[in-house]
Structures are given as structure tokens and as C-alpha cells.
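Sequence in, structure out. Go.
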Amino acid sequence: MSSGAFRYGPWDGGPDPLASPFTAAGALDEMSRQILEGRTPREALEALLRRGMPGRRGLDDMRRAIERRRREARSRGRMDGTLEEVRRLLDTAVGQERAALFPDPSDEARLREAELDALPADPARAVRSLAEYDWRSPQARETYEKISELLRREVLDSQFRGMKQALEGATPEDFARIRDMIGSLNTLLEADARGEDTDAAFAEFMSQYGDFFPENPQSLEELVDALARRAAAAARLLAGLTPQQRSELADLMSTAMEDLGLAAEMSRLAQALRASRPDLNWGGRARGRGGRLGEGLTGDEPLGLGDATSALEELAELDELAAALGQDYAGASLEDIDPDAVARALGRSAVDDLRSLQQIERELEQQGFITRRAGSLELTPRAVRRIGQAALARIFRQVSARGRGDHNLTDAGSAGDLLGTSRAWQFGDTQPIDVVRTVRNAVLRAGPTGKGRPVRLEVGDFEVAETERRTTAAVCLLVDLSYSMALRGTWGIAKSTALALHTLVSTSFPQDKIHIIGFSDYARELRPVELAGLDSEMVQGTNLQHALLIAGRLLSRYPQAEPVVMVVTDGEPTAHLLRDGTPSFSWPPMPETLELTLAEVDRLTRRGVTINVFMLDDEPRLVQFVEEMARRNGGRVLSPDPTALGSYVIRDYLRSRGRHRVAR
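Output:
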């Protein structure tokens, strides 16, 4: 192969590295189980994200892992470790000094002992009182100096992560450089607060002092966020101590900063960080996104000020991450979840799981299964067809499991036995094409054809075979949407049944017509896409009168079809339309409601419409009313187990179209 030439072909080196970790169709199938149980597409998608896909963790698994990390972080130790260490060093230094003074019989030694006896119980005041003390014991002086070193390192580490390790064996020049860094940082933050362009100043700052920031921030915003979060954690640490501990530790920190000449600069920095991130919790218990409150540290091991601050900072991040994974706050989005925080808490594999979850919604939209309309999530007709097929397959599996001998329908449902005759094709014909006569017509029209010359078909050449076919049926399925359906657990079954029936008619009996009408306080026709995304309605009222009225109008469009109305309900009529078109509700039902509903039954009966009712409850009032409907109309009343509703409705539809006629 010459230089610069390339050959392209299918990938054969194992799994496609660019392939999606899941199929959108598989994700939709996972969602369909929730949708067929009555949930909306958004609720189904959220359930899928919580549960995860095969081989990928969902949000719930991640939250459980985060909760385990929170328990580990909380049990890491106590927050008063620095105070405890200062007391220990102070007691040690005083004890070493007393040991040096004891053999000395002089009055000076006794005066020194009296000075030690008079030390305040507060360790901060005691440390300050001993600042000018002339130590007799070199060991005591060395121990006391460890207190100052400890406080400087811990206080700076509580503000700047990793400073405690960096300051081991620090020289005066090192502390001078820290003072310069904090001063430059304050100047930078103040310039940013004034709205100045600080990009060049930030780059210069990081080139000089970047070794102080292990977080390696790439912008001033990242730097401020890291510093503010740690400062807020330090503030929460103080707030979590007892009042006495808080006072003692604050005094010790203040003394350490004064010794370093940093008190004023640290105060400026604290004010700037609070102003830049007022949304953080700067006192009290740790607060995560959505208002969740986290607990403090509960372990037995004493932690230094820096380590305790790190633990509280980690707890705050875990709280925020848990809340973001919970997605239970206004405007929640998977984009709110910080992949870096996930990686720190759960490892890189969890980031891959998160990206897979974030990709699900995009893939469903890109592959034409969901769409957004006015900010809400809707299923597309393509998705509804797939969900309807799943509902229909589930019903046929139930029928088969009951041993009734039914099976899936795979033919077109439009044609019966061939009659041996044909006729010209007309728009709307569903009969099979007579291929022989169609080709013959094309040849006769075009004249003799030579070898290799193609036969070109035109519309007028087509003929269809005349067949015996079933009577065309026009079906209106009336589905109760009232909240009682959800309370009884039957709404999902009714929704699944309606989708299955619509799919059966659309795919197996395309010459038939089906309309789905939902009714609660009022009725309306439902498109399949709308039905799939519908939830039960939290309103009072079962307006069967309005539903029958709409069914009558729709059936009048098909005068040659076999008209059938199927009603799925769990309650008697409790609402009707007033003259101005508004619904009127009453419980118990008003006589007027029952009379107007039965009047619609009579009107449909006179037009030859069969009304079959599927009762999902055996309440006496409902039974009495439905039996009166059947007496007037002649239709059937069925009271199936709700789980068998789908098979009952499908059987009833097939039964209703049992007659045959010749399709000419």
C-alpha cells in the first residue's frame, strides 16, 4: 500500500470502542415496565436512572456507597484533637519544669513554682502566660516550643490543605514566603471583587505559589472554591465544639496567627472567601444540596485541626454528592453531579457508570424514542409502538399461561380466503396485490419488451385480489382516569391494556378503527403518545356520560363499521356535563347524573352500538348501575381479576368482529 493510503473496514479487534454501553431500545424496554404500571415517562426514566442498566450502577447504588463513605469519614476521630495535644504538651512542659525546680532550695525556685501553680486552666491563656517565662529546663522549653509549632502548622493546614506536611522543619524564610503568598492572594481576590480582569494576575500568582495548592486549580474560580470550602469546614469544626472548647481553640489559633504576623491577612482572606461563596454553610452542622444536614465526627481517635477540617470538608462534599445523586430537589439534573467528586469518593469506575446514566437520556432522544415539549418529557410514536407491542406480548403470555390456547397474531388481519377474482387497486385498499395480473397489465400497456428491458409499473397497472374478510370494526375504549384507579392499583393495568389494544388494532387489523377516551371529571380523546405518558388524575368525578357522548360522535364517522364501546371503570358515575359544558360532581351521585348517563346509553343503543363494561370493583352501587346499562343495551358485563383485564379486553375485541363479508 502506497504512502498516505488508508484502508477502512469493520472493527474486528474485539468490542467496538466507540459503541454505546447500552442500546436505547434496551433502555426503553426497561422504562416500559414502569410506564405499563401507570407511571409517566419522566417517572420511568428516573426509576431507570436510580436502578441503573445491566452492568452499570444506578444512582441508588452510588448513594448507598456514598453513605458508607460518610459513616467511615464520621468515625475517623474527634474534632478536639488539637486541644488535647496542646494540653498534653502543656502538662508535659510544666511537669518537666517542676522536675528541674524541685531540687533547687532557693526562693527563686519556689517563686517559679508558685507562678506555675497560678497558670489559668484555659490552655490558650496558659500558653499566652508562659510566652515570656524563662524556662529553667531545656526539655521544658523545647516541649513548649512544640506547642507554637503545632498551632502554626495546624492553623495554616486548616486553611490550606497539605500545609502541615509542607511546614515540617520550616524555616523563618518559609513562613515569610507564606505571608507573601497570603498577601498576594488577598490582593488578587480584591481585584477580582472589583470586576478587574485577573487572568494574567492569577497565572503569575500560580507560577510563584502554585506549590501551596495541591488541588492544582486551573482558574481563580476553582482556587476560590477550594479555599472557601475548606474555610467553611474549619468554621463548622469550631461550631461543632462545646462553647468552652470553641473559645479555647479560637484563642490558640489567634495567638498562633499573631505570632506569625498573619492575623490581619487571615482575617481579610476569611472575609473575601465568605463574600465569594455565601451559599456555603459557614457554621452549624454540615449542610448538603437540598437542605440535608450532616453530622459531625464521632470517632474515638483525636484528630488535629487540619485533619478534622479535612474530614468535615470530605463530609460536606459527600453530603452534596449524595443530594445531587438523589435528584430530589427542584431543577435536578444529572449534569449537577460533579464527576471529579464521584471519582474522589467512589473511584473512576463510578465515573464511567455516571457517564452511562447521563448518556441514557441523550441516546433515547437521539434515536427517536423521547422528545421534549414545553419542558416536559414525551414519548414518540415510535416508542409508543414498541411499548404497546410489549404490553400486547405480555397479555398473550398471560393468556397462554392460563392454558386458553390463544396465541400471538402475526397476519395482517385484513384479508380472509381468496375468491379467485381481482379488481383495479383503489386508494385505501388493504387486499393483497395480484402480482401476475399487475405485471401483465404493465406489459400490455408498454408493448413487447426486448431482452434485458425492464418492466416499469405505473399506478394504473396494479390489481388486488378479492378476498373474504372480517367485518370492519370501530372501537371506542373508555378508560377511567379517576384517582380511585390509582388507589386500587388498577390504573397501570388499564393503561397497559389500552396500549396493547391500540397496538393490536393498528398492526393486525389496520382496516379497523380504534379511539381511546379517558374520563374523570370530564372526558377527552387520548392519542397513544398522550396515553403512554399519562398518569392517573387526582380529581374527583367519574364522568361516564361525557365519555359516552364523545364515543357516539366518533363512531358516527364509520357508518359501515361494526360499532363497539368498551368501558373500563371501578366506580359508578359521579359527574355529568352541565348545559354550559362544565362538569358537575356529587357524591353520592345525583339522580340527574345517572339519568343523563343512561340517556347516552339509550342513544348509542338505538344506533346499534354494543357497550361492554369491564368492572374492576364489586361495590353494590356500581354493580346495580352496570346491570341497568346491560339491560338497556344488551351488552355484556365482565368482572375480571384486574390482572386479567388485558386478556378480557383483547378477547372481547376479537369476538366483536366475528362476522364475515366479501371485500369488493
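Check: DSSP finds 25 helices and 13 strands in the chain. Confidence is low (pLDDT under 50) at residues 285-294, 401-415, 659-664.
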